[in-house]
Amino acid sequence: MPAPPAAARPAAAIALTGTARADPDSGRLPGSDSFTADACVNTLGDVNVDVNQGTAEARALLHQFSVPLSATRRGARLARLLAVERLRAWGLPLDPARLIVAELAANAALHGRVPGRGFRLTLCVPRPTVLRIEVTDTRGDRLPVTPRPSTDSPAESGYGLLLVEELASHWGIRNGPAPAKTVWAEVRLVSSG
What we know:
- There is one protein chain.
- By secondary structure, this protein is an alpha+beta fold.
- It has a domain at about 65-190: Heat Shock Protein 90 (2-Layer Sandwich).
- It contains three helices and seven strands, in the order E-E-E-H-H-E-E-H-E-E.
- A five-stranded antiparallel β-sheet has the order 3-4-5-7-6, with helices on one face. Strands 1-2 form a two-stranded antiparallel ribbon.
- A hairpin with a 2-residue loop joins strand 4 (about 120-125) and strand 5.
- It is globular, with a radius of gyration of 17 Å.
């Protein structure tokens, strides 16, 4: 029997129970007007809406960790430290994930900062060979840009996304829900045996 709609359940009963697979052609969730990129978490709130309403095929995550943080330098540092501790607890390699977390969290604190609002770090292992890192901030109107090499003198900053592009097997940006955006990166996990 499908779960009752989120609106019919008390707020305390709403939880993330799975991740719906988006239609490969349209990128939309079944029965939804929103787009997804096979996301682990879709909102900044502490309560996530159940996307498994009987029509969408849910897939269980092997590991998941999500935490809201302040959009400050201290919050960015804490994101990196928490990611390292979580990766150790899961028995996963620290690099290159900690470098990617550090860069995405620093970008959220520096470029995605809105006074009074934070950002969310999410780590999940949707498949045994993939670690997905997501950083969601509330500046959906300000999308990150990857710098391109120029013949002029090189800039002193702005190369973080080039680092992410080089270290991650895939990365991208997902808009929404308004006013948020999520910058995500996936890292292939190599077995040590």
